[in-house]
Design brief:
The protein is built from eleven helices and four strands; from the N terminus they run αααααβαβααββααα. It is mainly α.
Length: 276
């Protein structure tokens, strides 16, 4: 096996030989951490979830600063719609090999200073080949404050959901992990608040700050923990009982337990799995 540091493509000494005896040792998390510790690695490129969390945080504050009447639930619905469309778009690109930017294409249909954002989003979803209406997946009423949205702002927002200017790579929502989406969700629930605007005069409009979520009870489950419990249930139940298993999570948060279990139940490689 040859391993490469993308910031230092020199392959000298980056070769390991495998055998059945040391296979798991070389691929373990401990060996990876040891390798990182022994190399002078510059981590200047943020991971996908960290880069996207920065995008979410920035646009959440910018939109709130421009549209004071918009609440957290409205912004969350907007981001949910954008992530849905980008996921459908990237999934289709994976199958067809044809890249597209439907959000920007739909926005170009109008040259007015303001655009009807719910209509643009619905048109973008249709361009992705999805026959269902946007209201099937998103509470369309929560997008009501965006019927008159600045077109230039929408263009910049859409571009950041493809490749922000601060990133060295494009986002692929078809490959984004559940754990990454869970971390992004945590940023959704952070409320926005404005500082005392009378304390200091400024010619530049102030941006709201994100109020940290109270830590008591707000513990988000990592994906590997949810995966462990899903596999534990699968290994300790008959296939029939596991297929028919129903689960409730009263404090689901980002839904990591529910989604992980559902994916294990619907694994097409397991005999007896259906689309029902």
């Amino acid at each position: 096996m040859s391993y490469v540091n993308s910031l230092n493509p020199n392959l000298d000494g980056n070769v390991q030989q495998f055998s059945r005896a040391n296979f798991f040792d070389y691929l373990s998390a401990n060996r990876f951490e040891q390798t990182i510790a022994s190399k002078d690695v510059k981590r200047s490129i943020p991971s996908c979830d960290d880069a996207f969390i920065q995008i979410i945080s920035r646009w959440k504050r910018l939109i709130k600063a421009d549209y004071r009447e918009v609440e957290n639930q409205h912004i969350s619905a907007l981001f949910n719609a954008l992530i849905l469309i980008r996921g459908c778009e990237d999934q289709r690109t994976t199958h067809t090999g044809q890249t597209s930017r439907h959000l920007l294409d739909a926005l170009q249909e109008s040259d007015e200073l303001e655009c009807d954002l719910p209509i643009v989003l619905s048109d973008s979803l249709r361009r992705c080949g999805i026959t269902e209406q946007l209201s099937t997946f998103i509470d369309i009423n929560r997008l009501a404050p965006f019927h008159h949205f600045d077109r230039s702002t929408a263009s910049d927002l859409f571009r950041d959901f493809y490749r922000p200017s601060s990133s060295l790579y494009e986002f692929n929502f078809a490959l984004m992990s559940k754990h990454a989406l869970s971390r992004i969700y945590e940023r959704y629930v952070a409320l926005l608040e404005f500082e005392d605007e009378t304390a200091q005069l400024s010619f530049i409009a102030s941006l709201p700050t994100e109020k940290p979520v109270a830590k008591s009870g707000s513990i988000y489950t990592p994906q590997y923990v949810a995966g462990f419990f899903a596999r534990y249930l699968q290994d300790n139940m008959t296939p029939r009982a596991f297929r028919n298993l129903r689960v409730i999570d009263p404090a689901c948060g980002s839904g990591i337990f529910l989604r992980t279990l559902l994916e294990v139940q619907c694994n097409p490689l397991v005999p007896g799995t259906t689309l029902r």
